[in-house]
């Protein structure tokens, strides 16, 4: 028995050491990436990092709390419009400031308040009804964005969003190059991952897991499950708004497409491919969901078929996604 315990301990130590070196290698690659790739691949990396923040925010609901939201684009798109309305040079916008110290807190607070309102109604339902209510709210915001052209710009959106700046007055720095914006997005991605990691590893995060597994039992134990779900809903909305703000700063325009149901579908596909209930899975899923169409469309006219086949294969043969495959691989290595 002692030999078995020592063998398992040695195996865990070896896996931990290997994971540490892998993370160090990934960190090094992330730092030098802008200097070793063309601008096209740098743009793809920026999109992947932003979409990964969006996917991680939904995973807090779907993977950890068991809330199948199909309207998460509401917060992504609302954050995009809120950022554009604050910074855009369009005649419809206020054009107040592009200072990150002001715009990002404003966007996250605004999307959190929107999530509070939507959650007040949506969280009183469950299952398929919750899914449909969240979808309805997102589609309602999309209709407003299309129809209220005097404020939202209609189908043209709000163009002229400048790159963000950090600081005040002459001490400010503008992230006007693709390389500098990549490092800014990378910093926000790491910060979002760290904060969400702390949340899901806290007693609050374990309570969310309990609600996902058996909400009635958690309520019987004295947990106010509605309050926990509302808190998760608001936090997820705030981080989705952050992703929306970053994507608008990158493309320079807030579009109604950010609110459309297909955007919610794309992020759900990312979670299914990457795996739910782990913050690593959404990152893998976002990378596959963003990169595969770009490369497949280069060689194939019907690249959507490739995405459909990949999605079906994951659902049938890897229902826990890439993260589940990695967990299974680590389990085999421990046994060996």
Average pLDDT reading: 88
Radius of gyration, in Å, reads 21 Å
Total count of strands: 4
**What is the domain total for the residues?**
2
Estimate the global geometry from the Cα principal axes. globular
Please, could you describe this protein's structure?
α4 crosses α9 (225-251) and α7 packs across α8. The chain is 76% helix and 2% strand. The chain is mostly helical. The chain has 2 domains: 1-36; 40-259, no CATH class. A hairpin with a 6-residue loop joins β2 (165-166) and β3. The chain is globular. The mean pLDDT is 88. It has helices at residues 2-36, 39-62, 73-87, 100-122, 127-147, 149-152, 178-201, 203-220, 225-251, 261-274, 280-299, 303-317, 321-335, and strands spanning 158-159, 165-166, 173-174, 253-254. The strands form 2 sheets. It has a two-stranded antiparallel sheet. The protein has a two-stranded antiparallel sheet with strand order 2-3. The protein contains 13 helices and 4 strands.
Write the layout of secondary structure elements.
Layout: H1 2-36, H2 39-62, H3 73-87, H4 100-122, H5 127-147, H6 149-152, E1 158-159, E2 165-166, E3 173-174, H7 178-201, H8 203-220, H9 225-251, E4 253-254, H10 261-274, H11 280-299, H12 303-317, H13 321-335
